[in-house]
Amino acid sequence: MSTLHFASALLPSGWADDVQVVVTDQTITKVTAGVAPGPHDEHHELAIPGIASLHSHAFQRGMAGLAETRGNSADTFWTWRETMYRFALEMTPEDVEAVATLLYAEMLEQGYTRVGEFHYLHHDHDGAPYTNPAEMATRIVRAAEITGIGLTLLPSFYAHSSFGGAAPHAGQRRFICSIDQFAKLTDGTRTAVRALPGANVGIAPHSLRAATPDELRAIAPLAENGPVHIHAAEQTREVEECVAWSGRRPVEWLLEHGPVDRHWCLIHATHMTEAETIALATSGAVAGLCPVTEASLGDGIFPAREFLGAGGRFGIGTDSNVLVGVTDELRQLEYGQRLKHRERNVLSGGPGVSTGRALFDAALIGGAQALAQPTVGLQANARADIVTLDTGHPSLAGRHGDANLDGWIFAAGAGAVDTVWASGAKVVENGRHVLRQKARDAFNATVRRLVA
């Protein structure tokens, strides 16, 4: 058991002063406000809950910044994807573990305490399954175990290159599974996470491009009441091809045939009509938004104001991991809306409401739902995922309450996160993960070889 004391902390009921938090066996067992620190309490100034990156492709952290030279024709998501395929084809299981380990350490340093790993790099270089079908998933589990981050592992079903069951191409060979192979992979993934406290498993049909309706129905029982994540409507070309195939737009098709409910998370959902936006908001599903990656790939801007106005829930993800940070995603989400609507504080929700607080609360709740975490935040029975901010940071000086979140998200940039506990273990102190240098050295050696 350990006891922490915070001069100020964001609880589910709001900000409170002089908060004592008791942690037992990875879980918060008691929270008391208005008490002086005890002689054995570890004291900090300002605490907030850790939140989830609900959508990550860990291996892509290794290629961050390697697709920023313009080709002979227009650079798009589709040309970036070819670079990603070439990078993925070179990676060994050891490479994946090294890259994911640094990524997860970086996530923790930036205030993420759980990751939803949408995992589709499954097979050996030639496309043949490893002796252990879940070899790559096991490496992801190992990276989470080493760093301490919470893990929801979402093995991805990927069978086709485009709508209507089109044959996959050679660059996708490490992703491709039959239904039987995917069942074995999912079973192996569940075995791999058993040794990791608090970890859970869902499934991730990659997209309507990659899975036929019959395949979606066949793999659905493998979720076993866990989360179901799927990419949808990220690109306008995807929407056009989906209409040509089915007569329906991607989100429209999923809402009609899913069945999409609170267990589902639609990643991106960038290009929706007004009717789709309202229907998704009322379905109970979470929109998995990855604003930095969506900007990096030129995807477009999610209709966030309309979606939230209809009661929709969202979480944030780091996706391609080209830039890793809670504040980067939330700031980009709001700034995209400001550019689109030519207004300020678009997503605050109403007069006098802090935009930083509104964004943070929504991402905390939506991320927890998308990763099937029933209790989050600084409250009893929640996993002890706690982040302290450095009140000496210039962008937090003199702030109180919600102004701390506004200063952190919109002004502080890097360096404002001080200490992080993940599942009750202190994994970040003075802004540095305990394994930062070791993880960085292994990552650098791996990427130098891959780039060469």
UniProtKB/TrEMBL annotation:
Cofactor(s) the record lists: Zn(2+)
Pfam families in the record: Amidohydro_1, HutF_N
Give yes or no: UniProt keyword Hydrolase.
yes
- Record-annotated Formimidoylglutamate deiminase N-terminal domain positions: 1-44
Is S-adenosyl-L-methionine given among the entry's keywords? no
What UniProt keywords are attached to this protein's entry? Hydrolase, Metal-binding, Zinc
> EC annotation?
3.5.3.13
The protein, known as: Formimidoylglutamate deiminase
Organism (species): Bradyrhizobium archetypum
